[in-house]
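Intended use. Records like the one below are meant for learning the mapping from a protein sequence to its folded structure. Do not use them to infer anything beyond what is encoded.
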Amino acid sequence: MYNFLMENLVEIKNLYKKYPIKSAFDKNSSDFIYAVNNVSLNIKKGEILGLVGESGCGKSTLGRCVLLLENSFSGQILYQGKNIVKQINLKTFRKSAQMIFQNPYSSLNPRMTIYDILKEPLIVHGEKNKNVINSKIEHVCELTGIDKNSLSYYPHEFSGGQRQRICIASAIILNPEFIVADEPVSALDVSIRAQIINLLKDLKEKLNLTILFISHDLSIVRHICTRTAVMYLGEIVELADNKDLFENPKHPYTKALLNAVPVITKNNLKEKILLKGDVPSPKNLPLGCKFHTRCPVCFNGCEKINPDYVFISKNHTVKCRLYNNQ
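Structure written out for the chain above:
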């Protein structure tokens, strides 16, 4: 069971992020894409927190906002109790918090050798001693399983799994405390994914990392994470430790996501949960509960009332009117 008394490393409070839509026909257009809508979420020190949901629900935008790779958002993001927008030097924060991007084929500079890619963060943050640089590169290669004899090679000379190891090495070479892993295995072959997932778990233990693990693969999230937040149309609709979430899901959307995970059993008799309709456009969000247009158990009032969060237990919250009387 996860220790929920651990201190918060990152606190997200009432975060909103929207993108303006530029029209070729109307320069005064004021339409927006609403990517993140009033998200509040705490990430405990030393945990791997999963963030799951369908493509386009705002997972990656939330991760990028947390690392200040996005601007012009509203709300607060606290790191070790300090507002990173106002109270923390951005360069210092970058040393403590890093990102592993989704696509290892596009996130490495094709004109730089692996040695130069790993050296660059150290140079940017003021390290000038060549012996120290070489020692840190050698150490990070050992941690991530990169062949030290291949440091003079270029990214195109590596496979996808090897490139992702290089991306991970680049992210941890500054010895950060916090990592945002944005679907780090979705672009990899199935045979390689388990290796990268196990590498992240090992690094988390060895380096005492805190990780926000963004994914749409629930089987991976169940394996690697301690808690999981479920996101739909820019909102967190359910948050619980993994045992509770996967064995006792409450939100209809969470149930549908888990129901869609293939299960190989002798008698696979579980009832299929089919969601009606398509995901609404983030440009025109539904009134009331954002999920009511597809919810199989929607009832009168869901289309008008945006539900509050309900505590199912001390460590399990859900955003659904079904539980308002509990």
